[in-house]
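Entry 12.
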Amino acid sequence: MPRRPAPAPRPQAPSSPRRRWPGSAEEFRARLADVRSSSSANGLHPLTDASANAALWAYDSRVKESFDRLVPLLKRLSSLQHEEGFEARAQELARAELGFTLPPQLLETAWVTQLDMRTLFAWCLFETYEQTSASFFEDDPLGGRPGGPATEAFDTFLLDCGFHLLDITPCADGRLAHAVASALRIPYSSVRRRPHAGALFDVENTVNRWVKTEHRRYREALPNP
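Predicted 3D structure (tokens):
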């Protein structure tokens, strides 16, 4: 019976060396024991970050409340649309409840015809969404802006582990659910996000980005050697 030929050696792509814990085994055990003792004293799991959970809960509640205020306010405006001084009263309520004013052209004709609630609701919805998005990047409620303490700490941890680039391609539902910040607990500025659906994942573009990252690492020792 003829012998089966030996398999040809497979080419291996360049990879970085495995990173190890810089300290001794005793130091690692001591650090792990400190984490476990501090967490058990609070009655929490050792991997639970109570402060991060509180920040995420506060941000999530604030966003939901901003959208939940739309319908009650519009119902109140619907009951006031034929009263005297409706325009000024409507703008006052909108500033107090929503934080922005309403389009005057939608309020000026309310005394002639019924208030266009569909258009008004759509306008308020998009305005609230715009304010929420602007507040996320301007106020940084989750502490993930470039150069922040959380971002610098995570980037250092990522490089110490031997990773050069972190690229995540969540679906639309994942982006809406804050897959990066809520599920993975990663600062948004530490990861490249691509709005591709699963069937439209650009493999060629991702491989090209990986090649450029490797070339930069070998030529310039960036982001790490």
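Annotation: Residues 117-139 form the longest helix (23 residues). Residues 143-225 form one domain.
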